[in-house]
TrEMBL record:
InterPro entries: Tetraspanin/Peripherin (IPR018499), Tetraspanin_animals (IPR000301), Tetraspanin_EC2_sf (IPR008952). This is Tetraspanin. Belongs to the tetraspanin (TM4SF) family. The chain crosses the membrane at residues 21-44, 64-88, 95-119, 206-229. It is a multi-pass membrane protein. It comes from the Eukaryota. It comes from Drosophila madeirensis.
Amino acid sequence: MGIGYGASDEQLEKQIGCVKYTLFCFNIVAWMIATALFALTVWLRAEPGFNDWLRILDAQSFYIGVYVLIGVSIIMMAVSFLGCLSALMENTLALFVFIGTQLFGFVALVAGSAVTMQYSTIHSSLQPLLNVSLRRFVSTSEYTYSNYVLTMIQENIGCCGASGPWDYLDLRQPLPSSCRDTVSGNAFFNGCVDELTWFFEGKTGWIVALAMTLAMLNVICGTMSFVLVQAVKKEEEQASNYRR
């Protein structure tokens, strides 16, 4: 009976070691992804030209989700170290705290990704904001500033008006040369609302992908931490029974 108990105890110890070091490795990967997410979100927020476009178009609500992801990525970088320490120390209280932070991280990352997509994809809340701003510039295109903004956007993106060249006709404005392809001379068919949205969507695609990958890792690390807690408790019970 003593031999059987010793073999069982040794097997449990090996299982704990396997879970512990696997969890440690997952936390290192999570730290790397959180660091990459932080770097990308800060870069997107600090990019001068991109920031200027959003300011001119009164669409800075685009940054709401970015701010959430910046904050969560900082927390997740710190939490990854807690996960490493709690796993190596096999401290059940620290592991329970870590499980709570993983749950919070998952919810916050999904929420931040959802808000980011809500302000950077087709049929999102971003498009009505862009439509209002662009139609305002088209309606006042005879003024220097409005003409400058429209020229900058239409030439760089390859678009015309808010929803298409007919915006100029509806608002009784002449069709500018920046609305025409320099090679064919034909007016750009797509409006700037859709083209700008596709442009913003390309900017946020990698960020949302990283955030969702980190959220998946939160689930994995939280589950493994719970398994480790149960294994450590079982080991403590076996040790207590053996002493009796």
